[in-house]
Amino acid sequence: MPSRSDDPLARALEEAVVRVAAAVRAVQASNPVVLIDGRSGAGKSTLARLLAERWPLRAAPQLIALDEIYPGWDGMDDGVERAYDQILRPHGRDLVGTWQRYDWVAGKYAENHAVDPSRGVILEGCGVLTPRGARIADVRVWMESPEPSRKRRALDRDGELFRPHWDRWAAQEVRHLRRDKPIELATLIVTVP
To answer: Tens digit of pLDDT for each residue in 176-190?
Structure first.
């Protein structure tokens, strides 16, 4: 079995978490906001989890995945708007935010979750890096990865549940790329194989 140092993906993610953690420290705030965007399968969730585990500040961050907020397979834009209105904007004004988890099985929103403005936030998901969100975020990460690698990882992760929705989700990603230009808004660009 190869070591993590022999795994190009693990090595790229390790380098990325070190860079993002350094950027968080450089903000010199107790409650920075980190946005992690990229297309499906790019490694956003893994990077966010690693960053949360190695958060360089005293108080643990609040890790929120847009997958918990999108209202279904056609809901990227709506999920991003909800995240802005319910998480980012209140946090930026030092107010408690409250977001609702979307229950994909029931097809409706479920329980509420509070967001403490005194603690940092890591918000990850496709579409999160928009001009509105960028104005509030302290660290803005765009993750880049080749489509064959992304697709393999996404389908390995979500299996047959995601396969029939890959193209329609990808169309929403392309619309986001053209409209919001997230790469231009990023303070860090992370490339993974």
So the answer is: 999 999 999 999 999
